[in-house]
């Protein structure tokens, strides 16, 4: 059964993030932040990509799977259900082809072990759950594991 991992770095410094990913066998991290910037040292796109590469993990940023500011405001305000609903409609309208391709790649076995990453520690409170669910809808055999 193909597996997709998800992880949030909110409580993890870079070294611990890498340890979690390596412990799960992840070889590719897909950053699903709309803006891959962070106030946390080492968690912005360029530095994180270099650090992951040094530890054998490929980094990809996919802005199209990130939460735009007008939807992110719902998550920040605790309106998670509304955020999920609006984000789900948004990615189906704007990134359906990308979701189809990624789901096919993950299910085919040609993709390296992959994790979706963003800030939020709790997957249930995060847009990455919506992305993972959209991928699982396309490929029901996909197992999603939150790290």
- Which percent range fits the helix content? 40-55%
Low-confidence stretches: none
Determine the mean pLDDT: 95
> Which structural class should the secondary elements be placed in?
alpha/beta
Number of helices: 5
Q: Find the CATH topology.
A: Protein-Tyrosine Phosphatase, Chain A
The CATH architecture is Alpha-Beta Complex
Give the SSE order as H and E letters.
EHEHEHHEHE
Task: Please write the CATH class name.
Answer: Alpha Beta
Strands side by side in the biggest sheet: 3-2-4-1-5
The radius of gyration over CA amounts to: 14 Å
> What's the overall geometry?
globular
Strand content: 15-25%
Plain-language structure description:
It is a single chain. The protein is α/β, with parallel strands linked by helices. It has a single domain (3-146), classed as Alpha-Beta Complex (Protein-Tyrosine Phosphatase, Chain A), CATH 3.90.190. The protein has helices spanning 14-24, 45-54, 69-76, 80-108, 127-138; strands spanning 3-8, 28-31, 58-61, 114-118, 143-146. It is globular and about 35 Å long.
In terms of topology, how is this protein built?
Elements: E1 3-8, H1 14-24, E2 28-31, H2 45-54, E3 58-61, H3 69-76, H4 80-108, E4 114-118, H5 127-138, E5 143-146
Helix pairs in contact: 3-4, 4-5
Sum this structure up briefly:
The protein is α/β, with parallel strands linked by helices.
Name its key features.
single chain, 147 residues, alpha/beta, Protein-Tyrosine Phosphatase, Chain A, five-stranded parallel beta sheet, 48% helix
